[in-house]
Amino acid sequence: MRIIRCKDYDDMSRKTANIISAQVILKPNAKLGLATGTTPIGAYKQLIAWYNKGDVDFSEVSTYNLDEYLGLGPDDPQSYRYFMNDTFFNHINIDKAKTHVPDGSNLDAEAACAAYDELMAAAGPLDLQLLGIGRNGHVGFNEPGDSFSKGTHCVELAESTIQANSRLFDSIDDVPRKAYSMGVQNIMSAKTILIAASGADKAQAVYDMIYGPVSPQCTASILQLHADCFVVADEAALSLCK
Which of 65, 67, 68, 165 is catalytic? Predict the structure, then answer.
């Protein structure tokens, strides 16, 4: 792992955006794995600003999002497809047909997960996978468990994840309890992985990811075994990493 220490959230966002934009500039038809949540919003805003300046072109890029809530269609304001469109895709020159998110409206979990795996297999290894990290060390919606997942699967969300995500809903009761998520094998197959983290509430998870044993109890710890992984984190998230 290569650790990039940042002053604060804004600095982390710029450095994250730098790595993503460099990938697109070097390979205009790059295949990007993308994440949702509050952590990458600053990076997406920076990429939009650079696009508006003419510094980066997304017209040939294809994207594959990590996860989606089960039961939410693409037009639902709480869905991750809606989030990606509203936060990023609507503001750049990307072809929406080349942007992919698991189909949360398909309640047939086996069929929905198989379809997403087939889509990713046809695309081949992603050039760059962007990740956030949960307070319990999850990446995507791969919660702590007894083993590392492989392909896209349906996940029962941990209570800590539901509580963390409730800030984006009117009520904690509105947060879906299940989601579709890329598996760890999907994630690890990317050529480069970029994991961004911000805030003191992520400090223990970041420490366990970098220095703890490789264990499915901290899903992100598997990234220690990846050949090309960047950790871009602010001082608060790295406060336990001396």
Answer: 67
- Indicate whether 239 belongs to any domain: no
Closest CA to 104 of 81, 84, 123: 81
Q: In whole angstroms, what is the distance from residue 140 CA to residue 135 CA?
A: 12
- Residue 98: which CATH number? 3.40.50.1360
Q: How far apart are CA 112 and CA 114, in angstroms?
A: 6
Q: CA 102 to CA 179: how far, in whole Å?
A: 9
67 annotated active-site = yes
- What's the whole-model pTM score? 0.93
User: Is residue 10, in this structure, part of any structural domain at all?
Assistant: yes
pLDDT in tens, 198-226: 999 999 999 999 999 999 999 999 999 99
Is residue 184 in some structural domain? Answer: no
Annotated catalytic residue 136:
yes
Single out the catalytic residue among 65, 68, 127, 138: 138
90 is catalytic: no
Low-confidence residues in the chain, pLDDT < 50: none
